[in-house]
Fold this sequence. Notes:
The protein is mainly α. It has one domain. Helices cover 78% and strands 0% of the residues. It has helices at residues 3-33, 42-51, 55-78, 85-115, 121-129, 134-158, 172-206, 215-223, 228-252. The chain is globular, with a radius of gyration of 18 Å. Pfam families: DUF1206. Keywords: Membrane, Transmembrane, Transmembrane helix.
Amino acid sequence: xxxxxxxxxxxxxxxxxxxxxxxxxxxxxxxxxxxxxxxxxxxxxxxxxxxxxxxxxxxxxxxxxxxxxxxxxxxxxxxxxxxxxxxxxxxxxxxxxxxxxxxxxxxxxxxxxxxxxxxxxxxxxxxxxxxxxxxxxxxxxxxxxxxxxxxxxxxxxxxxxxxxxxxxxxxxxxxxxxxxxxxxxxxxxxxxxxxxxxxxxxxxxxxxxxxxxxxxxxxxxxxxxxxxxxxxxxxxxxxxxxxxxxxxxxxxxxx
Length: 255
């Protein structure tokens, strides 16, 4: 097998792993909505895998997503040369964001595979807030996450993710299904990250690290609101749509 073909196979496998993680997150989010307050963030989904004897799968997820992160790092620095300069800059920014998304899940997979548990983001935020620069730094991080969430939402609304796909001779129904799942999925992911960003800013303003955290804290905050259960179920369905889209993305992504 040629080196290029091997990279292509590993990268597409990484996208499949990314899909599996989000389908697990969606399932756990639905459990939270229905009354189970167990962890439902990405690390929580990975812990479900390792608890069921899937440590080998965690390493597979980590390697696949690390390859994706390295690929997108290259794309962010020197890639997308086939498009016009203005659009090239936007595409490289998108690649940079994907580096962060893939890298965080890969890091979480390694961390859970090695340690079997998550240290908790709240304790990290507490340490940062204890510093003189802490509130300002945490606020900037929260605003940045909200900005990324807005960017993810416009990817879904404007369907810009389609530029990264090559449908070839795929049937029209497959094309339409992929695009619709992508729209719903990116918007749902945006809502999740937006909630995380807002809660991070709130933690800085109120000096309360407990209000900050990952998707786990965001989901439990949502379910505690009026009509939180149905709202969280809708979000879980959206994240599941993103997981399904990622499977199709693995098939049609230009690599």
